[in-house]
Fold this sequence. Notes:
4-stranded antiparallel sheet
Amino acid sequence: MPYDSSLDEQLFAKSFDTEDGRITVSVYSYNNGAKKLQIVRENKDPEGALRFAKMGRLTKNEVEGILPLIQEAKAQM
Length: 77
């Protein structure tokens, strides 16, 4: 069965903004299945537009910023 974006339901999403971009913590459920946590990094390009980037490693500031968001997302799962 191919992926169908209309079956992907976002249940929660909050972002932590940094100087270089933002990190978004969200909870999704595909086709009313198990709720899953997703963490996405977006970096600013030279023009200031946000672009998807690999999550990679986190700074201490980023960890401290998203931990409350992860806890809030966990309550939605």
